[in-house]
Design goal:
- Residues 2-58 form the HTH lacI-type domain.
- GO terms for molecular function: DNA-binding transcription factor activity; transcription cis-regulatory region binding.
- This is DNA-binding transcriptional repressor EbgR.
- The protein is an alpha/beta fold.
- It folds into three domains: 4-56, lambda repressor-like DNA-binding domains (434 Repressor (Amino-terminal Domain)); 64-156 and 290-318, 3-Layer(aba) Sandwich (Rossmann fold), CATH 3.40.50; 158-287, Rossmann fold.
- It has eleven helices and twelve strands.
- The protein has helices at 4-11, 15-22, 32-50, 75-78, 80-96, 126-132, 158-171, 191-203, 218-229, 243-255, 289-306, and strands at residues 64-69, 99-104, 117-121, 139-142, 152-155, 178-182, 211-214, 237-240, 265-270, 283-287, 313-315, 318-321.
- The strands form two sheets. Strands 2-1-3-4-5-11 form a six-stranded parallel sheet, with helices on one face. A six-stranded mixed sheet has the order 7-6-8-9-10-12, with helices on both faces.
- Strand 6 (178-182), helix 8 and strand 7 (211-214) form a beta-alpha-beta unit.
- The longest helix has 19 residues, at 32-50.
Length: 327
């Protein structure tokens, strides 16, 4: 596992700076490019450490893939989960000798070389898809799926994760569980929130008054947690939609003087490298986000190679990692 010292050495900054960046310290004054470099290195070292196989040199496949990230590049700092997906895509393309062009916020560049495959990361607008299908019909969703689509997809079973976390808290004896999450589209709940609310209400442990929704950032998590704590009564178990949100929630809980996990427990989602360096360390559901990027590349290659017509849906595995924010 990568350590703070490893990250600090490669980034050329102090241990304290790395720790404060990874814990989203709002009092730290540091350039955005420095923050981005620290997150890049943390993710890179984590990926190198978790990979037990040496890269295999593959023959040139003469492919040119376009990766369309349906968010601004700054999102990779606010939530390194997205950074991990990109690293998976880039690593596999490099391994297979595939030319890759990245573009953000659905801003599709003019491309001279023929595109043989497109990776759509996140939810795409219909007009974006229409533009891309003029380049190639070999498209693959990553971190999104559509049962009505003819495209391949690599995604996570977020509904199952929500149920798993709810069941864990019930087994721990909690009779009231809250939720703090984000939204990809304005005024819309994501699958985690929907599944959690439906399943939790069925189990009798969730009230919609205990569901809070903002953005997938630590600052949003902080604000939502402060809103929750302002009430005289609040749940003592929390399901947090992402580690980035959870970092902000932790800060608010510490400021409120709560002892974690004795006074309040929480579980988040993603297991980004930062999750190990929070205080206490985050209990979270490990999602192999880099594997989503890798398998997206593999599906594009395999579809061309085999002439496959039927779309495939691939779900990457997840695992609950219990650490310091649960009893």
């Amino acid at each position: 596992m990568a350590t703070l010292k490893d990250i600090a050495t490669e980034a050329g900054v102090s241990l304290a700076t790395v720790s404060r960046v990874l814990n989203d310290d709002p009092t730290l004054s540091v350039k955005e490019e420095t923050k981005h470099r620290i997150f890049e290195i943390a993710e890179k070292l984590e990926y190198k450490t978790s990979s037990s196989k040496k890269a295999i040199q593959a023959k040139k496949l003469n492919h040119h893939f376009l990766a369309v990230y349906n968010y601004k590049q700054e999102a990779e700092v606010n939530d390194p989960y997205y950074l991990s997906i990109r690293h998976g895509i880039e690593t596999q393309c490099d391994k297979l000798g595939i030319e890759l062009t990245n573009c953000y916020d659905s801003d599709i560049p003019a491309i001279s070389n023929k595109v043989t495959g497109v990776l759509l990361v996140g939810r795409s607008q219909p007009e974006t898809i229409e533009k891309l299908t003029k380049l190639t019909d070999n498209l693959c969703y990553v971190d999104f799926s559509d049962n009505q689509s003819s495209f391949d997809s690599v995604d996570i079973d977020l509904a199952r994760i929500s149920k798993e976390v709810t069941d864990y808290f019930i087994q721990q004896g909690f009779e009231r569980i809250g939720f703090i999450g984000g939204q990809d589209q304005p005024n819309s709940a994501d699958i985690r929130e929907i599944a959690f609310a439906e399943y939790g209400q069925l189990k009798g442990v969730v009230s919609l008054d205990d569901v809070y929704r903002g953005e997938f950032t630590s600052s949003s998590g902080y604000d939502l947690a402060k809103k929750m704590l302002a009430k005289s009564d609040f749940p003592r178990a929390l399901f947090i939609a992402s580690d980035s949100i959870a970092i902000g929630v932790l800060r608010a809980l510490h400021e409120h003087g709560l002892n974690i996990p004795d006074d309040i427990s929480l579980i988040s989602v993603n297991d980004i490298p930062t999750a190990k360096f929070t205080f206490p360390s985050l209990s979270t559901v490990r999602i192999h986000s880099e594997m989503m990027g890798i398998q997206g590349v593999n599906l594009l290659v395999e579809k061309v190679r085999d002439g496959r017509a039927l779309p495939l849906q691939v779900y990457v595995p997840s695992k609950l990692k219990l650490r310091g924010t649960t009893r």
